[in-house]
């Protein structure tokens, strides 16, 4: 019979095992799904897939009548009705790749891009950050695992073959942490103790971003657009140089911002490319300041909001303010907008975001020339943040939202179409949670989704164990530190420990293989964040 001391040590081993497998989750993604014995190990109750489809020969009324009598379906029907509307024609539909975290290997795009095209995407917004192969004086900007020129050329070739436009995104004001953290560029910071934004009052600041743009555009000779960022410049106007400029007549924080962006935009236009910028720094500006801005006809504006009710961020006055721009894009989110450490996307949340956008576009699209939409998928909230939902684990959310944008609904036919495209065993639980409505699919990187679903289930079981009164009362940090506790209560508290340990061991191997199929060794080796796993 195991002693209390042995039981406690097993608990510590469980913590270590789950911590290790969390590292594997944190690091990466994968390519093809192979069902593993680990699937049988996880004690998760999967709710059965409702037989909700309209069968051949049925009328729509027959189908709805059948749905109404099926347990659990009436709620889904109500939710489907709630989001149903007429879709807005969108010329361009871009999918965002946030490569500052968990960048896929170059060969991942061979399978991912054809799927995006089938789902209705027309292009990709590639936020390279330090994954771009900078050279010469900018070589230090590239990460050790950055794509080389050959890999970048391959990615662009695959995009071209699949008729996907590539829009590179180059940060040119805020969120330049990847550059301003380096000794070579530290003097360009707006604040000496923060690498978040560069100082617009230094000529060398403009020199850096122009050089970055020249190299990126040089390797994207066919691009029509380049996104120049310019969001969340929080520290604007706070360095001594900018404060001195602010004493000059007619100078304000707004003009500091607008003058820098105009210089960047003019540089891009001279290269024959149309710049796009984020809108948030303009929202609080006086309408007259924006109207007088010379660059408003040079730049397209990308208006972003990732919430279920975008009208809270964007009122009618803002839309009027933006009416003078030569082109307007909007930006939604299919992942990376509900928490900096989320494991799986909340599909229902993101559907509400897209529903809100479609309603806003219907109301305001006559006010300005609508170019299209970018579905953002943030991988880190900034350069220093931990990873959130991995791209392969978020493909069901991306698929559901892409189809919804085109059809304006996610009824049974749409859900079955997505199920077929992704090769899933059941329709995507767009109104539920993927960790309790288990999906097994065969899209690129699907093994990562399988593993992450199992990981969330395992963490949930761990939390249940930790809330058990026997655990709380007899296995707190004092008991473990001193190996002191009641054998009976420790035994009850750790009753499922062996099963959890077995699951953790299987899952560690499964996720390790899955992640290695999508990511390189640098990403898999991202160990620094594993220590925070218990906060889940």
Automatic annotation (TrEMBL):
<keyword id="KW-0378">Hydrolase</keyword>
<dbReference type="GO" id="GO:0005975">
    <property type="term" value="P:carbohydrate metabolic process"/>
</dbReference>
<feature type="domain" description="Glycoside hydrolase family 20 catalytic">
    <location>
        <begin position="114"/>
        <end position="296"/>
    </location>
</feature>
<comment type="similarity">
    <text>Belongs to the glycosyl hydrolase 20 family.</text>
</comment>
<protein>
    <recommendedName>
        <fullName>beta-N-acetylhexosaminidase</fullName>
        <ecNumber>3.2.1.52</ecNumber>
    </recommendedName>
</protein>
<dbReference type="Pfam" id="PF00728">
    <property type="entry name" value="Glyco_hydro_20"/>
</dbReference>
<dbReference type="InterPro" id="IPR038901">
    <property type="entry name" value="HEXDC-like"/>
</dbReference>
<dbReference type="GO" id="GO:0004563">
    <property type="term" value="F:beta-N-acetylhexosaminidase activity"/>
</dbReference>
<dbReference type="InterPro" id="IPR015883">
    <property type="entry name" value="Glyco_hydro_20_cat"/>
</dbReference>
<dbReference type="InterPro" id="IPR017853">
    <property type="entry name" value="GH"/>
</dbReference>
């Amino acid at each position: 019979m195991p002693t209390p001391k042995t039981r406690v040590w097993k608990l510590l081993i469980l913590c270590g095992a789950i911590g290790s497998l969390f590292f594997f989750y944190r690091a990466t993604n994968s390519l093809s799904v192979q069902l593993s014995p680990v699937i049988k190990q996880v004690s998760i109750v999967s709710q059965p897939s409702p037989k909700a489809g309209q069968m051949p020969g049925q009328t729509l009324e027959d189908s709805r009548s059948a749905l109404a009598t099926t347990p659990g379906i009436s709620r889904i029907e109500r939710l489907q009705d709630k989001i149903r509307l007429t879709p807005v024609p969108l010329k361009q539909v871009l999918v965002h790749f946030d490569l500052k975290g968990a960048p896929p290997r170059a060969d991942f795009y061979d399978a991912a891009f054809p799927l995006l095209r089938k789902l209705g995407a027309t292009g990709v917004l590639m936020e390279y950050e330090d994954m771009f192969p900078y050279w010469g004086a900018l070589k230090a900007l590239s990460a050790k695992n950055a794509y080389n020129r050959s890999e970048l050329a391959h990615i662009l070739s695959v995009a071209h073959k699949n008729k996907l436009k590539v829009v590179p995104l180059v940060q040119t004001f805020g969120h330049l942490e990847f550059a301003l953290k380096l000794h070579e560029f530290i003097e360009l910071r707006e604040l000496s103790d923060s690498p978040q934004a560069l100082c617009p009052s230094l000529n060398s600041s403009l020199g850096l971003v122009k050089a970055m743009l020249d190299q990126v555009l040089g390797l994207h000779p066919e691009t029509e657009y380049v996104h120049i960022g310019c969001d969340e410049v929080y520290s604007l106007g706070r360095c001594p140089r900018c404060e001195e400029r602010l004493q000059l007549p007619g100078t304000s924080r707004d003009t500091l911002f607008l003058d820098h962006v105009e210089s960047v935009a003019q540089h891009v236009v001279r290269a024959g490319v149309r710049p796009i910028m984020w809108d948030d720094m303009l929202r609080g500006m006086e309408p007259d300041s924006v109207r007088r801005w010379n660059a408003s006809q040079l730049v397209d504006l990308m208006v972003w909001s990732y919430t279920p009710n975008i009208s809270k961020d964007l009122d009618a006055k803002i839309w009027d303010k933006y009416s003078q721009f030569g082109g307007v894009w909007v930006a939604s989110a299919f992942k990376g907008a509900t928490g900096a450490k989320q494991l799986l996307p909340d599909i229902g949340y993101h559907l509400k975001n897209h529903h809100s956008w479609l309603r806003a576009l219907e109301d305001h699209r006559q006010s300005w020339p609508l170019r299209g939409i970018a579905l953002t998928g943030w991988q880190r909230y900034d350069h220093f943040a931990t990873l959130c939902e991995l791209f392969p684990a978020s493909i069901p959310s991306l698929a559901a939202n892409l189809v919804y944008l085109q059809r304006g609904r996610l009824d049974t036919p749409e859900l079955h179409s997505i199920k077929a495209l992704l090769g899933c065993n059941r329709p995507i639980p767009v109104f539920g949670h993927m960790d309790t409505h288990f999906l097994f699919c065969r899209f690129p990187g699907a093994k990562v989704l399988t593993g992450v679903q199992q990981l969330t289930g395992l963490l949930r079981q761990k939390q249940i164990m930790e809330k058990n009164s026997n655990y709380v009362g007899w296995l707190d940090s004092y008991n473990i530190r001193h190996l002191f506790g009641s054998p009976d209560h420790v035994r009850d508290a750790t009753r499922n420990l062996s099963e959890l340990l077995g699951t953790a061991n299987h899952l560690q191997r499964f996720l390790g293989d899955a992640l290695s199929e999508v990511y390189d060794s640098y990403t898999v080796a991202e160990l620094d964040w594993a220590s925070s796993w218990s906060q889940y």
